[in-house]
Structure formats: structure tokens, C-alpha cells
Specification:
Blueprint: E1 2-5, E2 26-28, E3 42-47, H1 53-68, E4 73-76, E5 92-97, E6 101-102, H2 106-110, E7 120-129, H3 136-160, E8 170-173, H4 174-179, H5 190-200, E9 204-215, H6 221-248, H7 253-283, H8 298-301
Parallel strand pairs: 2-3, 3-4, 7-9
Antiparallel strand pairs: 1-5, 5-8, 6-9, 7-8
Length: 302
């Protein structure tokens, strides 16, 4: 499930007393994300690709609940989300995973970066974690992901105007998505795929390290292992698919080198292998869950 938030105009919002406040047209999934936006400027889009009847029923009931409360809300699926007729009225789309918790000022801090930057295709924000000190594994993940955001994303954004879209808490210019043929089903890493294709088409990216959005980390090694498998097996398949396009693209030789060797082979292959093999023995040193005395049933204490 994702949030798609769209802006009709990339004007800067000004909340200073005495100045006129401009509220752009916004399409969001969870209205609590933008409490400052009047209801008339919000269009909520709930997207779900599951085939579970129970999940579909829950979504339908939730949509009807918000509709009865006066919210402008629509349901659909991720595949066809950008094909609805009403999307053509919007210029930007913000995407969030359902378990991310953006601050109320997220949109007002992101959108101004698009002003007078017609070649800017994506503004990516940073993840922050609510349970980073839960156990040794979450602390190690926090260190690893801090390196990803503060070094990999930030450096690439500053020097190359390119970074891998993290799949969430990013705002895209819809024209950039259209120029790259939109979301493709050739890989499950559609977020990384569309970022690479947009880069090859000349679109620039910006990373904001000071705009954060809370989310959770896997607390058990088994959950971490499954997550890492999804994150790092597909990029190599995507590399195979994108390599011919990268080689024959019109971007500079330096940017081609960065995509092939630094982005794919170093960031998506070598470094994940190092962190994964390092985390396994270290994570076994400390138990994942601390069971307090009051959590133990009396029959087990006897």
C-alpha cells in the first residue's frame, strides 16, 4: 500500500502572518500526514495489489468511513494508480509506504525544491527509525542505513544529481515518470528501475538528509534476512536488464562508470554482502528480545 500525493503547482508555501497562504492540490493516502491542508485541496488515493478478500473488504470499509466523514478519497491498485483521469491535473506525486510516518510539514519542505528547477525529477527524504535501540541487530542496521543515507545518497545527490529511489518518502515530477515509460513490471525493484531510467533520460535528483520520516526496522534475524534477500538479489537482475541501456545512453562516461561500478557493483553487491556476513555473527552475541520478569507466566517460574 502506498501514498500518492500530487501537487498542481510547485509554489513555495508561506505560513508567515499577514502573507497569503497558497495550498496546492494534493492527492494523499492518509490525511493525518497533512493536517495543514484544507479538505478541499486533498484527494486521498488508497492503493492495494493484494488478492486477499479480507484485506480488500477492510480497505473498502475504511474508504467508506472516510467518505462519510467528508474526505475526498478513492481506492485503486498500484499498477493503474497513475492511469486514472484525475491524475492528469497534477504535476507531482509523493510516495509513501503505509508503515512510514511523515511529519505534518513534509510536503511544505519538499515541494519548494522543484521551483525553477524544471530538470529536477525526484526529491528523496531520509528514513529515521523508532526502534533503532531495540537490540544489537537494530543498532547495527541503524549504523548501516545511516551510511547509506549520509554517504551514498547524499554524496551521489550532490556530485552526480543521481541516487537510488528508496521506494518511499520521495516526491516525483510526474513528467519524469512519463518520460521513462512509468512503472514497469520487469522487476520487483520498480523503484530502483525507474530511478535508473530517469537518470538515463537526463533527470536530476536531490537528497534531503534533514527531512526525515519514521519507520521500523526488522527486530529478528529471520525478518532481516528476508528483507535483505529482497533488497539485494533483485538489483543484480536489474543490473543485467539496464546494462545495455546504460552503455548506449547519452550520459557522460563518468556517470556511466558511477552507475555500473559504484552504484550497482559496489553499493548493491559488495557492501550488502559485507554487512550481511558481518551482522550474522554479531547479531548472535546478544538476544533479540529481553523477557522481563513480569512477562513470564507463573507456571513457567515454578
Amino acid at each position: 500500500m502506498e501514498i500518492f500525493s500530487n501537487f498542481r503547482s510547485p509554489m513555495v508555501l508561506d505560513h508567515k502572518p499577514g502573507k497569503k497562504v497558497f495550498f496546492p492540490m494534493v492527492l494523499v493516502q492518509i490525511p493525518m500526514c497533512n493536517k495543514k491542508e484544507p479538505k478541499s485541496k486533498l484527494l486521498i488515493q488508497i492503493l492495494d495489489d493484494s488478492d486477499d478478500p479480507t484485506t480488500q473488504l477492510l480497505i473498502k470499509e475504511e474508504v467508506q468511513k472516510w467518505q462519510h466523514e467528508g474526505a475526498r478519497i478513492k481506492a485503486g491498485n498500484v499498477k493503474s494508480a497513475m492511469n486514472y483521469n484525475y491524475v492528469k491535473d497534477y504535476e507531482f506525486v509523493a510516495i509513501f509506504y503505509a508503515d512510514f510516518q511523515p511529519n505534518h510539514d513534509f510536503l511544505t519542505r519538499i515541494v519548494p525544491h522543484f521551483k525553477d528547477n524544471d530538470d529536477l525529477g525526484l526529491v528523496q527524504a531520509r528514513w529515521s527509525f523508532v526502534i533503532k535501540d531495540e537490540n544489537l541487530l537494530t543498532r547495527l542496521q541503524n549504523i548501516n542505513l545511516a551510511f547509506h543515507f549520509e554517504v551514498e545518497q547524499q554524496v551521489n545527490g550532490v556530485f552526480l544529481n543521481f541516487l537510488g529511489f528508496d521506494g518511499t518518502i520521495g516526491v516525483w515530477r510526474i513528467k519524469a515518470l512519463e518520460d521513462t515509460s512509468g512503472w514497469l513490471e520487469r522487476t520487483t525493484m520498480a523503484d530502483m528501475d525507474i530511478a535508473v531510467r530517469a537518470h538515463l533520460h537526463g533527470w536530476k535528483f536531490v537528497f534531503l538528509n534533514d527531512v526525515e520520516c519514521h519507520c521500523e526496522l526488522p527486530e529478528s534475524y529471520e525478518a532481516y534476512r528476508k528483507q535483505q534477500y529482497r533488497w539485494h538479489s533483485e538489483p543484480m537482475q536489474l543490473f543485467y536488464l539496464c546494462l545495455p541501456a546504460v552503455i548506449h545512453s547519452k550520459i557522460s562516461v563518468w556517470k556511466k562508470f558511477n552507475l555500473i561500478f559504484l552504484f550497482f557493483l559496489l553499493q548493491k553487491l559488495s557492501l550488502p554482502f559485507y554487512s550481511f556476513t558481518l551482522f550474522y555473527p554479531l547479531a548472535r552475541i546478544e538476544p533479540f528480545v529481553t523477557i522481563h520478569h513480569f512477562d513470564i507466566p507463573h507456571e513457567l517460574e515454578e
